[in-house]
Amino acid sequence: MAKSLVIVESPAKARTIQKILGRGYQILPSMGHVKDLPKSRLGVDVGKGFEPSYIVIRDRRKFLKEILEAARSADIVYLAPDPDREGEAIAWHIAEAIREDAEKRREKEKARKAPATGKKAGRRSGKKGKDGPFKAPEVRRVLFHEITKKGVSQGMAEPRDLDPRKFDSQQARRILDRLVGYNLSPLLWKKVRRGLSAGRVQSVAVKIIVSREKQIAAFTPEEYWSLTARLAGRLPPEFPAKLLEAGGEKVRPRNGEEAEKLRKAVENGPFVVREIRKKTRRRSPPPPFTTSKLQQEAARRLRMPSYKTMMVAQSLYEGIEIPGTGHVGLITYMRTDSVRVADEAVAAARAFIRDAKGDRYLPPSPNLYRNRKSAQDAHEAIRPTSTEYPPSALKPILGRDQFRLYELIWNRFLASQMATAEFEQTAVDILCDPPGAPSDGFLFRASGSVPKFLGYLELYQEENGRGNGEAGEQEGAGEAGEQEKEADAVLPELSEGERLALRELVPAQHFTQPPPRFTESSLIKELEERGIGRPSTYASIVKTIRDRGYVRMEERKFLPTELGGLVTDLLEEGFPRVMDVEFTAKMEEELDRIEDGEREMVRALEEFYGPFSEELERAREAMPELRDELVATGIPCSECGGEMVIRFGRAGRFLACKSYPECRNTANFRETPEGTVELVADEEAGVDCDKCGKPMVVRRWKGSRYIACSGYPECRNTRPYPVGVECPECRKGEMVERASRAGKVFFSCSRYPDCRMASWARPVPLACPDCEYPAMALKVRKGGKTEIACLRKGCKGKREEEALHEAG
């Protein structure tokens, strides 16, 4: 039997490493953490220096038992969970379990060898221990930054002791999160409703989204106008030029009257080229991926949620079966904040670029990138483990999401070592100086950019995020986008002094834009820039706030729910330190300092918990009891004539009769801009309840519609909302609207689970012109563009949107 035991997290990782190390090693998975704080109690003894009480996780007992049994016959145990704080905690708890098991065996051995009397003693003294002579294995920690032969061999050649500072850093995070969540959540249950949760980081993330929504609501658009001349020189093409100055002063018309006055002033010209400026603009390639940048780009380009990005990246890291080669880890460790790359990987990338593209695409020396000031730099950037496996060669082997993510990582890494892109940028100043004009006339400007050498852009085009809520974080984002489009315009050959012909003068109305709502990509960017969370936590933060019902997604952007806004306001008032973004970022820095040995764990916890416990006591007394709060509205109850009041329920606030439970009448409402409350009439569904006969009405939950009995709560009958399309698969059911756990609307057959037809895109009752499939879908593409595409997988049939209007 193998005398060396290696412990990793997952079976896939175990298979890959087993093939690398061979028969002399036994590889076992732990299936993640084997111990955690108990769910049924706090599990932290504050009075004993925040001592945690870990227990074995129920569904990990089987795996831990297998590990302990294997460790008893091993000479050495190598603990090889992921090389981060969570991996260190897994390794620490397994090592602890091995030590405890060894101690029990040692005591058993002592008891067996102890002298005894009588017949029982005679029988016992001659009996050998079940496990033979006691021998505890040596336990070492190994780090695999890539699951390749080289990476595993290097890790095994450099075994080390467990890192208590890294473990303390993980423990501190876990204890902090438990102290906050375990105390705040019950408070919300008491004050608002059961089932709510709060967290040290998740609540701050929701606050960021709520704050942005308040900024949008408070934003007042300002009108402004532009004046664009379409001009023609002696050579084509025609080109646009925008009015910038009048009489040497910048001009920006505030309304249509001012724009029209300027139009009339310049409509008779003349337009003469005053100055032409040309310069070469260079665009440097981006660095290889860190975790946050990978999540941002995958969300933007691939529309892949961050948690899914990390799942797919984990599978690429742990290893893929390649025919003729075996299990191979395709990327380096995917939780990193560093852009550093090993010298040999840089050399391999440069060799690949030289062979594939030629010397022109290779800079004279390797491109070097600087880490952020807060970067831990514990691991390399995310990159392919070898240039021997280009995406095209692996496409038949990888799953769709694996291929798309691997190709993204591959292209970004190679692009990071390619030559800069070069553009010839031209700016043309055009003077219009009609009679009666200001002393310096009217200055128009045209800009254009022509690529001279694409360099890295031939492989990796950077996303600008327009139309996606990514760009334009400030007011006037629309204007910035227009200027960028103008800068990319194609200009004809012009010469200074050349007279131009005016083809058209176009005044255009614009409005300043509010800050955009966060997409998943821009939220992760915001969290990173403000120091909230770390590479290993971004995905879980985003997933948690969606699952808790505090935010919802609309057109791929985050909107706070009413519940999210209310809970955020309560927590901000009751726990200003916990909800402070800068304080949360400071706590992340404290965790980093614990890992670096600059901070003692217990001291950091004490400094947090003292003020927190004081806020907790105040909030228990001062936080309003919304759970039982009744807000008067003055609206009479349509059932009993009593007063309707505002109550709080699972989906937020609603109107209910004050005489509840004697009268159970409920209704929806909205608040007017004046602050008054008015009823929102239920939309009739056009069908009667099949249980009580009352009319059915349309209601909403998590953004999706459903049909409910108007007799609620006496009758609780509901059914999914039909969208008027027969199921194209079974032809028996109809397509209905549903909501996922995360609040995302999708469409499926009403006969589920007998028929599993489902689609994220809204079905429309049109047959595909290519394959005659009986249903198509209204799909939203990048930039908000919509199209009608076939609903059948693999078919690329499309129809014009007019067909949808004709179909009704």
Secondary-structure map with pairings?
Layout lengths: L3 E5 L2 H11 L3 E5 L5 E2 L7 E2 L5 E2 L2 E2 L4 H12 L3 E4 L5 H29 L4 H8 L12 E4 L7 H9 L6 H28 L10 H17 L4 E10 L6 E8 L2 E2 L5 H11 L4 E13 L7 H11 L4 H13 L1 E3 L3 E3 L14 H15 L33 H4 L5 H17 L4 E12 L9 E12 L23 H11 L11 E13 L8 H10 L8 H10 L3 E4 L2 E4 L1 H13 L6 H15 L5 H22 L8 E6 L6 E7 L2 E6 L8 E6 L5 E4 L2 E6 L6 E7 L2 E6 L8 E9 L7 E6 L5 E5 L8 E2 L2 E3 L11 E5 L5 E5 L7 E2 L2 H6 L1
Parallel strand pairs: 1-2, 1-7, 7-8
Antiparallel strand pairs: 3-6, 4-5, 9-10, 9-17, 10-11, 10-16, 12-15, 12-17, 13-14, 15-16, 18-19, 20-21, 21-22, 22-23, 23-24, 25-26, 26-27, 27-28, 28-29, 29-30, 30-31, 32-33, 33-34, 34-35
Helix pairs in contact: 2-3, 3-6, 6-18, 6-19, 7-16, 7-17, 9-15, 10-13, 10-16
Number of helices: 20
Percent strand: 15-25%
- What is the CATH T-level topology of the largest domain? Rossmann fold
| Parts with pLDDT < 50 across at least 5 consecutive residues | 121-131, 465-478, 803-808
Please give the largest β-sheet.
7 strands, antiparallel
Please identify the top-level CATH class of the largest domain.
Answer: Alpha Beta
- Helix-strand makeup class: alpha+beta
Strand ordering within the main sheet: 25-26-27-28-29-30-31
Mean pLDDT: 87
- CATH architectural arrangement of the largest domain: 3-Layer(aba) Sandwich
CA-CA gap between termini:
72 Å
| Rg, Cα atoms, Å | 33 Å
- Helical content stands at 25-40%
Count the beta strands: 35
